[in-house]
Amino acid sequence: MSDTDYKFDGLDEWEKRLSQVIENQYPDEFRKMVIDVAAELFGRVTEKTPVKTGHLMNEWRVGNIEKRGDEYYIEVYNNVEYAEPVEYGHRTRGGKGFVKGAHMMELSMQDVQKALPGYLREWLNDFLNSHEL
Questions:
Q1: Environment class of 100 (CB within 10 Å of its CB; exposed 0-12, middle 13-18, buried 19+)
Q2: H-helix or E-strand spanning residue 72
Q3: Across-strand partners of 100?
Q4: Which of 53, 93, 105, 107 is most enclosed, with most CB atoms within 10 A?
Q5: What are 125-132's contacts with CB under 8 Å, separation 24+?
Q6: Comparing C-alpha atoms, which of 72, 69, 65, 75 is closest to residue 42?
Q7: Cα 67 to Cα 33, 71, 110, 121, distances in angstroms
Q8: What integer pLDDT is reported at residue 105 of this predicted model?
Q9: How far separated are the first and last CA of the chain, in Å rounded?
Q10: pLDDT (tens digit, 9 = 90+) per residue, 115-124?
Q11: How far apart are CA 51 and CA 48, in angstroms?
Q12: Do the beta carbons of residue 98 and residue 91 sit within 8 Å?
């Protein structure tokens, strides 16, 4: 799709420190939580993708999780050549009209960002209730 980076906000300072403790002491559980968030984005973007043939919708993928420094990255992407024009809009053949973008990734990111603070608080509560920290 594009090289645009999105960052999730929503953790206050205490949650950030706690997530670092969890990441260091329970890395597998922390990684699973990050993968779950990516899976949520994958589901939402797939639902919002316009369908003519189903090809674009069926080509969404979730990449491997990577740790770079103190941050985790996981990519939700689509390599179909017309994914960007569908996302952002495009001129019609002949240049006389314009097809509005579906903004399936942008809208899905907004949905996940809105839900993220509640999801993370619930995840942290569950984690704290099942571990002795």
A1: exposed
A2: strand 71-73
A3: 89
A4: 105
A5: 127/22, 127/26, 127/29, 131/26
A6: 75
A7: 14, 6, 24, 22
A8: 97
A9: 41
A10: 999 998 898 8
A11: 9
A12: yes
Instruction: Look up tokens 């706690």; give the residue.
Output: 18
pLDDT tens, residue by residue, 43-95? 999 999 999 999 999 999 999 999 888 788 999 999 999 999 999 999 998 88
19-34 pLDDT, tens per residue?
Answer: 677 777 778 888 888 9
Tell me if 56 sits within 8 A of 86, measured CB to CB: yes
Helix, strand, coil % in the chain, rounded to nearest 5: 55, 15, 30
In whole angstroms, what is the distance from residue 59 CA to residue 78 CA? Answer: 6
Token pair in block for residue 9: 């906000």
Burial of 90 (0-12, 13-18, 19+ CB in 10 A): middle
